[in-house]
Each structure stands twice: as C-alpha cells, then as structure tokens.
Amino acid sequence: MKQAVVGMRGVTLVEMAIVLLILGVLTRAAIAPLSSLQQHRQHREAVSQLESIRHALWAHVVSAGVLPCPVMTGSGTAVAENDSVCLRFSGGVPAAELGLPGSVDSDGALLDPWGRPYQLAISLFSHDQHGIPAEPDWTTEGEASRIGIAELAADLVVCNQSVNGHCPARSVRASELSFVVFSSGTDHSSAGDQSENLDADKVFTLQEHSVNTEHPFDDLLLWGTAAETVYWLLRAGWLP
To answer: What would the pLDDT profile of 183-234 be if each residue is shown by its tens digit?
Structure first.
C-alpha cells in the first residue's frame, strides 16, 4: 500500500529570490574582508619594495658614483642608455641595472604590486659655475667630484599639499632631494592632490592615506636627500 505524502509543496519563485538575495549578501560580506586583506598585503609589499629601491639606489651611487637614469617607459622595448650622462628627469625604475628582483615591463621598469611601473625622478640640477654646466651633477660620471661637496645641490621637493610648481616654505616636508621614487597606489589616479605626483615637475606631495572620493590619496613615496647622496659618494671615495 502506498502512503500519501502530506504537506509537501514546491519552492515558489519568491522564496527562491529571497534565498538568492541572502546568498548574495553573504557572498559580498565574505568578499569585502578578502579584498581589504589583499589591498593591505599589496600596500605592505609596495612599502617593502620602495625601501629596497632606495637601498639599491644608494648601492648604485657607491658602485658607479652617480644615480641611475630612469627608464623610458611606454616604448615597449628596453632601450640602451648612455652611461656617461642622463638627461631624463623621470621614468621607470631600472630593475636590471639596480639588481632588483620582481616583475618588470617590456621596457625593463620594475612593477609595483598593482602591475604598474614604479616612478623614479632624479634631480637634474647642474651647477652653473663649477663642473660642466650642461650636464646634471648627480647623473654625470665625475661631475660630483668636479663640483665639490660644498657646491653640490638638488632641487626636488616633497610638499604637504598640491601646489602649482612651487611649495610654500610652511608646507615643505622634504627639500634638497636628489631623487624621489613612488607608486601611484591602488587607484593609479590623478584625482585630488595625487595629480601633483604625475605632473612632471620638481614638486611632489605626500599626505595621509584617504579614501574620500573628493580628496583621495593613496600614493606611496620615498626619497633621498642631497646630503645622503653625498655621504655615500664620500664613503665610496668618489668625492675628495
């Protein structure tokens, strides 16, 4: 004898929609922390890589007596550089020349955790009375020695705010910089004050991290001063 099945019914479309909605909410709730953890990991990795780049730049100063020339990015092909003089103000970080591990693009520029080239800016300051006036003091072989310790100077500045070509004294975070290296962070955006780091002038900005859509800032910067560069030149015997 067959027993009757009592109380069974199908699932309605409304009930299925509710279940799917709940699953969607739970999925988003699970993904958000994972995304935050990923961003935090990438941020820590970028900070570590920037420190490695700075140490590698000092090592290059010690071994070669000059700062390296930034990589020309966007060409799609690694370009051989003139070792005696560099007139390129900014570009990518030359990974092979600095002996840096990590991913590189087709130009040989070191990539940050977001897959974009780290940016390197070098002071092209050239003393107008000592050395060779037409050649930058920090990237020309032997020029630092010809200039002399007392006359060596640099002209890059890190400001606390976005400015139009000049950082007021009250807003200067660091000055007399021979190089600045940075990553444009997660958003790679020129929104807000982040535009200061992408306008190809001698002034950069470093501010508190902000996810405010009107005033975002997640760029990461490190730099080296002229005094620090002179110290390493002296340690290596490149200066008398």
So the answer is: 999 888 888 889 999 998 999 999 998 877 778 899 999 999 999 999 999 9
How much is the CA Rg of the chain, to the nearest whole Å?
A: 26
| 206/222 Cα distance (integer angstroms) | 9
Pair 89, 122: CB distance under 8 Å: yes
CB count within 10 Å of CB 198 equals 16
Write phi, then psi, for 63 (nearest 5 degrees).
-80, -35
DSSP string over 67-89:
PPPPB--SSSS-----TT-----
> Is the CB of residue 163 less than 8 Å from the CB of residue 203?
yes
First-to-last C-alpha distance (Å) of the chain: 109
Give me the DSSP letters along 115-126: SSB-EEEE----
- 229 CB-near residues (< 8 Å, 6+ apart): 61, 67, 138, 154, 178, 179
Q: Which two tokens stand for residue 128?
A: 């107008």
Distance CA(169)–CA(192), nearest Å, equals 21
pTM: 0.81
Q: How many CA atoms lie within 13 A of 178 on its CB side?
A: 26
